[in-house]
Design a protein that fits this description.
Length: 289
């Protein structure tokens, strides 16, 4: 399939991108790695009249540490996240997540900003961003604003990003000592997208008691959500096998699980519980000294 005809723009600054977005409105789409937008254009599920390529805009890619937090440019590829020594050291759950996205071709072109702006219901980063309490830095005509991840995902491929804004950075707050995280998914055998994926980040005190649990779930519904039932079942408790199992049984509680080509509601809810247990077990193992 060929996409419908469009005008191609290659701006060289964020200001220029914002000017184009302001002028062209919903006739325009920005292009990052193209690994979601281009397939959608080829299938004619998206038919933008204008495509604004971000490749020549400087300053949008890269990973740095700022006051303990990781600040990742929107145009940073999955491979750059996966292979970054600083991400591996400070936030291994994020390297792990980037490393299980699609295949090497997807990871070499796809970007963190593109994945989070696109908000595919089966994408991997959203679960991990929820578990890490990430913040999205958006830039628009009035300057920058920060959106907390819990306010980011609004529905099927829908986020808090306004039409005239660009997602420019993702900020991952520092985690305290005694914190461990893990992301595990049941991958679709063809695309590798998550049929269901769970990210867990837990903090344990010196006695092994969980002082904070943060659990994100992707694939189950129209958008990634926080698994509050699991979090509540872990916080304040020593994470032995029975506690983890009991908490994981709440993996689908309050989640609007949707049936799709991959499975029924019952099957996907079962995967939520199984992967919640596995992710929490792995996170707790990493958190222990
Ligand atoms: C075969 C295949 C397998 C895949 N497997 C997986 C997988 O297992 N797990 C997974 O999570 N993903 C998977 N993906 C999706 C992949 O991760 C995409 O790279 C990602 O979803 C989109 O990133 P992108 O940079 O390619 O964005 P693009 O395709 O360029 O853009 C996607 C959307 O986001 C918008 N956008 C992009 N960047 C910005 C920005 N900075 N600010 C505002 N809006 C922006 C675009 O306008 C567009 O609407 C797969 C894709 C393919 C083709």
């Amino acid at each position: 399939m060929y996409p419908a005809a469009f005008d191609y723009h290659a701006p060289s600054s964020v200001a220029e991108v914002l000017g184009l977005l302001g002028r062209l409105g919903d006739d325009a789409k920005v292009l990052a790695g193209g690994h979601s937008l281009v397939p959608m254009m080829k299938l004619r599920l998206a038919q933008p009249k204008h495509v604004i390529d971000l490749k020549k805009v400087p300053g949008l890619a890269g990973i740095k540490e700022e006051g303990g937090a990781l600040v990742i440019g929107a145009l940073t590829t999955h491979w750059q996240v996966e292979s970054s020594p600083i991400v591996r050291e400070k936030c291994p759950v994020l390297s792990d997540t980037a490393g299980v996205i699609g295949d090497p071709a997807v990871r070499n072109l796809g970007t963190m900003g593109g994945a989070l702006a696109h908000a595919d219901p089966a994408a991997d980063y959203p679960a991990t961003m929820i578990a890490l309490g990430a913040e999205m830095i958006c830039e628009g005509p009035k300057g920058r604003r920060t959106v907390k991840v819990d306010d980011w995902f609004k529905g099927l491929m829908s986020t808090a990003l306004a039409e005239n804004e660009l997602l420019v950075q993702v900020r991952i707050p520092a985690t305290p000592a005694g914190t461990g995280g893990a992301y595990l998914k049941f991958p679709h055998p063809a695309s590798r997208f998550a049929v269901v994926g769970v990210a867990a980040v837990v903090t344990l005190d010196g006695k092994g008691v969980c002082t904070k649990a943060s659990v994100g779930l992707t694939g189950a519904g129209t958008h990634a959500v926080r698994a509050k039932g699991v979090e509540g079942g872990l916080t304040g408790k020593a994470l032995d096998a029975a506690t983890i199992e009991a908490a994981a049984q709440k993996g689908a509680d309050g989640v609007d699980v949707q049936a799709d080509l991959q499975g029924s509601v019952e099957y996907k809810a079962h995967l939520c519980r199984v992967f919640a247990r596995r992710a929490v077990e792995a996170a707790a193992k990493r958190a222990r000294p």
